[in-house]
Automatic annotation (TrEMBL):
Keywords: DNA-binding, Transcription, Transcription regulation. Transmembrane segments: none annotated. It comes from the Bacteria. This is Phage repressor protein C with HTH and peptisase S24 domain.
Length: 223
């Protein structure tokens, strides 16, 4: 049964599964940081204030969760799906994976032809053990504000090269000229790709296929 308490509890559960506060979940969804605060859940007259369907939709998109998974949380249950990143609980056991600053990713020698980590100069960072079991998974640390409001300076993206990429996925793309960017994949054809910027102040981009060195899917982000 849908109720005011269960809807908010489901949002809190979703935030917890990603290691976020309610404010962190709101920020990741591109909402005001106070949108999910407990003080905002009732009006000044004491009446229940419900999250909008638009807010819930943005949360699901930002976390990669499905509506079915969210409704399962509303019912007070845990989704049966076992995925460490797209809408399921992240195991607490840490394991080291390669870490590189976002600006460094544009330099040569850090990746092979398939976009997998290679060479020297990588640091390591402890992340959920399930991440380290995926072949070639690595982490990039955001530097600067070009990806706000979704990703901020110091956030860490976990990237999986070789993973299937579909329209609407958040991806990291490296051009053959060494430019590295995080965008949303809008369209991919045999001739090229169209990318949408995370930050509305930065332009969308389009590239011919022969201009792309590699593209990898973002499967999780810290907050």
């Amino acid at each position: 049964m849908l109720s005011h308490e269960r809807i908010w509890s489901a949002l809190d559960s979703l935030a917890e599964r990603y290691g976020l506060t309610a404010s962190g979940l709101a920020r990741r969804a591109g909402l005001d940081a106070t949108a999910f605060n407990k003080s905002k859940r009732r009006g000044s007259d004491g009446r229940d204030r419900w999250p909008s369907t638009e807010s819930v939709s943005k949360v699901l998109q930002a976390t990669g969760s499905s509506l079915d998974e969210f409704l399962t949380l509303v019912q007070g249950e845990q989704p049966a799906r076992e995925s460490a990143f797209a809408g399921s609980a992240i195991p607490p056991q840490p394991a080291p994976i390669p870490l590189l600053g976002f600006a460094q990713a544009g330099a040569g020698g850090f990746f092979d032809d398939g976009g997998f980590p290679a060479g020297q100069g990588w640091d390591v960072v402890d992340f959920p053990a399930a991440a380290s079991t995926r072949p070639g998974v690595y982490a990039l640390e955001i530097q600067g504000d070009s990806m706000m409001p979704l990703y901020r300076d110091g956030d860490i993206l976990i990237v999986e090269p070789g993973a299937q990429v579909r329209r609407g996925d958040r991806v990291v793309v490296r051009t053959r000229e060494g430019e590295v960017m995080a965008k949303v994949l809008h369209r991919q054809t045999q001739r090229g790709i169209d990318l949408v910027s995370l930050n509305p102040e930065h332009p969308n981009r389009s590239f011919d296929t022969d201009e792309i060195d590699w593209m990898a899917r973002i499967i999780w982000a810290s907050q």
